[in-house]
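Last lecture ended with a question: if I hand you only a sequence, what can you say about the shape of the protein? Today we answer it with a concrete record. The protein is Peptide ABC transporter substrate-binding protein. Below, first the input exactly as provided, then the predicted structure, then a couple of comments.
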Amino acid sequence: MKRQGKIIAKLLVSTGVLVSSVGYASANEVKSQETSSTSLHKVLRLNLIDQPGQLAPAMAEDEAMFSVMHTMFDGLVRLGPDGKVQPSIAQKIDVSDDRKTYTFHLREAKWSNGDPVTANDFEYAWKRVLDPETDSTYSYLLYSIKNAEQANTGKLKLDEVGVKAIDAKTLRVELEQPTPYFTEVTAKPIFYPVNKKVDEKNPGWFREAATHVGNGPFKLVSADKEKITVVKNDLYWDKAAVKLDKLEFDVIQDENTQLYMFDNYKSDWAGAPFGSLPVEALPALNYKEILQTKPIAGVYWYKFNTEQAPFTNAKIRKAFAYAMNRQAIDDVLLDGVQIPATGALPPTMNLKKDGYFKDNDQETAKKLLAEGIKELGMTKLPPITLSYNKSEHHRLIAETIQKQWKQTLGVDVTLNDEEWKVFLEDIKNGKYQIARTGWHADYNDPSNYLELFKEKDGSSNDTGWENKKYQELLNQSVTEKDSEKRKQLLAQAEAILMEEMPVAPVYFYTRHWVQDEKLKDVVMDHQGVVDYKWASKE
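The predicted structure:
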């Protein structure tokens, strides 16, 4: 499959986004580049849409920088090419019978400066993340560790956190309660080690390539506001698995330019997670079968205020959910590249492949609405308002669903767009009937979604809904040791959530990009973060 240069170029010209700052290579020049350069198959050329932040694991805040951190650092475990957790710096993991104590046994590994990687480096790094002065955005991911949250909020000392280096090669971690997904979450950059000796001597080590120290498959050799370059780390414990010699991240702050560079063989990748592809280019890229699409653990949904009539009634909530035509929304507004949602859990973790209800089920929706209105003792619905934060994207979806509800249910719905801060405040205070919301999972486990609705007073549950049986199932899933039985418990919980419908799923998020046809074995996780450890250009 070859890049569709002429088609993409024509598309960009027709939409007025052809960028003259990027030189257009002729066909002969492109052919010359491909045949005369014997080293390009060992070099991966990438583009960042934003200038890089601080190149330290605790400071990474988005998918792009998480991906960059994967090149320079390695954790206790790593997600392999098959998407499953595999041992990395930890060659063995012991778990106590009560599943609250994890003991990680480290292999012989080195930092890029030759220092040994030790359990002390992990303890030091995790406590550094939890230090209130660090102000790490993702410190909450460590809260499953005993006393971690209290230490992060200044209520306890860092020495009281349940992570301890028993010796140079043994790390013991105590949890607040059994956490089935704990091993997987330690693959995230926030759990990466920091060279304690280097950090204590030079706290700003990560600001300069000359002083930067990592333990990953690649090491940093240069970094500024315009470019990051990493090369294969010959001291990496698993260097035999690393096929590429160099990764170059150029800062190109325009998505059209990024695609144009890819189109002209000046880069090997365009789109997620380092930027976005131009929306107007997606149909052509998809038609020519060069668009790469992958589901991630994210959902776009509408929540109901279940403490305010008429949405105190589950049948009415379900009527509004069933009356949505998600496929039409995806085809017309989302370029057919998102996934219509008929369940609460995204494809990366779903427990019921076919969902819990039929999309655009107009007859059932009408029937449920009539029954719900009767149960409430009403003759018709009160005025209904759908709220969303100001955004062209949210507006178009809201207007489409507004028309669908009118057509199927005969209901007039008023749209209310608000500034982000006002919107959040109104949601928090229950000043809404239906509201747009979404969720991106921090870890690829159903509990990350289902726990949102466990308690009506929970920080992430603004629907006012809770269910005793639902709570019991989630509590049982925490202590269930058998993974299949645990899945069954979580599936039962999701079924209750979809039967009660405090939220109506609209679509599941996907990530889109284009890549060199020769590029193989790139790992993309549930968040859309990529790992090039095993990548090669054949």
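Comments.
1. DSSP finds 17 helices and 21 strands in the chain.
2. The longest strand covers residues 292-304.
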